[in-house]
Write a structure and sequence with these properties.
Length: about 280
């Protein structure tokens, strides 16, 4: 249903793909201008994305997050970065030992697996089209790593399994049951299975992050379109789904805006933030 209560919203949290960017993976001039305008008025802007931190650079630069001291919540909230100071506000990781276990699971089930270091997407299995898509979306280089379990000897913010959607549906159920209490597992796209530290999703990180800003959930707007956006949309004072969102996300939203190809974010800003 549509939000009717008038609130003084102080933070807008935006998913990137399918929300902030259009079908060409671009931020339109109108969307950029609206987001710059509210930052100039003192409203916080944060990106909350499944992308790795290096994959947010272009978007963060376009929105001038560094100039305004605003935030990137990458890895579905596994890492929160002040883009001006480069201070890591929150950082949740999976152990190197668990990465090795997940690599074995991927090999056993015939799906791809990758993780990330500060520069690369690191493939632990044969490269597939979905890994290539992930690297392309994030504008980072994909590196096939031999002896993956030995190479990744450091904790990581997330792993990503890739494969055919119908296969990942069943694998998601199996791994959720097997690693209950140890990992948070969900699909961000039909062909991407996210493997996150326990308790980490976009809503949980906002619960921990908002006290840092001195804000309450009632003062925030969260906008998204995908499976991994649902928790933050349900949590926010105003949860917004794009018109192009998944059915489950549309059902969870307080307000449905125009699509990502129709400057839906501009509509939200004009209706709920600009005075």
């Amino acid at each position: 249903m549509e939000e009717t209560v008038v609130m003084d919203y102080k933070l807008i949290v935006l998913d990137i793909d399918g929300t902030l960017t259009n079908s060409k993976k671009e931020i339109t001039p109108a969307t950029r201008e609206a987001l710059i305008k509210i930052q100039e008025q003192g409203v916080y802007v944060a990106i909350a994305t499944g992308r790795p931190t290096p994959g947010t650079k272009k978007v963060a630069a376009e929105l001038e997050l560094e100039r305004f001291g605003n935030y990137v919540l990458s890895f579905n909230g596994g890492r929160v970065l002040n883009y001006k100071t480069k201070e890591v506000v929150l950082d949740k990781t999976i152990s190197a030992e668990m990465v090795g276990i997940l690599c074995e699971e991927a090999l056993q089930h015939g799906v791809g697996i990758l993780t990330y270091d500060s520069e690369y997407a690191l493939a632990g299995t044969e490269v597939d089209e979905y890994m290539e898509l992930e690297a392309r979306i994030n504008s980072i280089e994909l590196k096939k790593v031999g002896h993956f379990k030995d190479y990744v000897d450091f904790p990581v913010n997330k792993c990503l399994m890739t494969g055919e959607p119908e296969h990942l549906v069943e694998l998601e159920k199996e791994l959720k049951e097997k690693y209950a209490g140890k990992l948070n597992i969900f699909r961000s796209e039909p062909f991407f299975l996210e493997l996150m530290p326990r308790g980490i999703d976009k809503a949980s990180v906002l619960k921990n992050f908002l006290p840092f800003l001195g804000l309450s959930r009632e003062e925030i707007i969260c906008c998204g379109d995908g499976y991994n956006d649902r928790t933050m949309i349900e949590y926010a004072g105003l949860g917004v789904a794009m018109a192009n969102a998944r059915e489950e996300v549309l059902a969870a939203a307080d307000y449905v805006t125009a699509s990502n190809d129709e400057d839906g974010i501009v509509q939200v800003i004009e209706k709920f933030i600009l005075k």
